[in-house]
Design brief:
Layout (H helix, E strand, L loop, with lengths): L1 E4 L2 E8 L5 E6 L11 H9 L2 E6 L18 H9 L10 H14 L5 E6 L1 H12 L4 E7 L13 H7 L8 H15 L8 H14 L3 H14 L3 H4 L6 E6 L8 H9 L4 E5 L11 H16 L4
Helix pairs in contact: 1-11, 2-8, 3-4, 6-7
Length: about 300
């Protein structure tokens, strides 16, 4: 369904009983709500959650911001490398307000929140700046943005901002499949045809590279979220792959250290994806962390 959230048109999918505990899933850079596997959604519904997925602004079926222009990715990367200010079309704070708008539109006062990659950055902002709306917080394969943390390899960074060799759907899917293979989990490799089918479904649903570019610059412009982390009071759980080539596992350790009382699950052989073999483990981690929010304060 399509709703208005923070005065932005946002596409939303809600599954589970109406009296289930709301769980808001926030996806990463350029990724649509369908990137949260349906199997994971059903595992969470079976645990009593009312699962809410949505397309972030500028991707999927949500409102596009083409009137803001296409940013110069290379210039933004150069400024980021020299710690210079970056002017972004919009900010992660704006995207966090979109997420709050989703809860408002669904008449939800509080929700458990799980964010992956860029979605985890948005979730950090949510939990710090809108603490009264977040019951528990799960951060998957994400980072505080602290400058001392290791960067992905040059190969991965180059692949992140590279373009398909053609404009056909097949060329786009080929390009995306190569990138996901590069950043995927070495111990849990995706079946090539399964991955291709998922990517074809995503491209067929919506494909809008300028929106991804604007999101990428928003990430670069946001900087170090360390000061925000000290304000997080919701029970937090960090999930991070020990073989993540895009956001190295040091970022997960950094988050656990900086968020008071945070638990963590560092998974050997996991990269920067959501392998089907680990979905039950992810669901259990979210549910266990959510249960911490129900425990009375000592």
């Amino acid at each position: 369904m399509h709703i208005q959230a923070n005065n932005v048109g946002i596409e939303v999918d809600v599954q589970g009983r109406s009296d289930g505990e709301p769980l808001l899933l926030v996806m990463g850079l350029g990724m649509q709500l369908i990137a949260w596997h349906e199997e994971l959604v059903q595992l969470l519904v079976a645990r009593g959650f009312r699962v809410i997925r949505f397309d972030n602004r500028d991707v999927g079926l949500s409102q596009r911001f083409d009137h803001l222009g296409v940013p110069n990715i290379w210039a933004a990367a150069l400024r980021h490398g020299f710690s210079l200010p970056i002017k972004a079309p919009y900010s992660l704070d704006d995207m966090a307000r979109d997420a709050i708008g989703v809860l408002d539109a669904l008449h939800i006062d509080q929700a458990h929140v799980c964010g992956a990659s860029m979605g985890g950055m948005i979730a950090q902002v949510l939990a710090a700046q809108h603490a009264d709306r977040v019951k528990s917080l799960t951060l998957m394969m994400t980072t505080s943005g602290a400058r001392h943390l290791p960067l992905p390899s040059l190969k991965v960074r180059t692949a992140l901002i590279s373009r398909p060799r053609g404009r056909s759907e097949a060329a786009v899917v080929d390009h995306m499949q190569a990138f996901f293979k590069l950043i995927g989990s070495p111990a849990y490799p995706s079946d090539p045809q399964w991955l291709r089918n998922r990517l074809q479904a995503a491209v067929g649903r919506a494909f809008h590279p300028p929106g991804t570019a604007r999101q990428l610059v928003a990430v670069a412009a946001h900087g170090d979220r360390t000061p925000l982390l000290a304000r997080i009071r919701a029970p937090a759980h960090v999930i991070h792959g020990m073989s993540d080539p895009l956001i190295p596992v040091a970022a997960g350790h950094d988050l656990q250290r900086k968020i008071a009382g945070a638990s963590a699950d560092f998974i050997e052989g996991m990269g920067h994806d959501l392998p089907p073999a680990l979905l039950a483990r992810f669901a259990e981690g979210m549910a266990t962390n959510a249960a911490r929010a129900r425990q009375p304060a000592l």
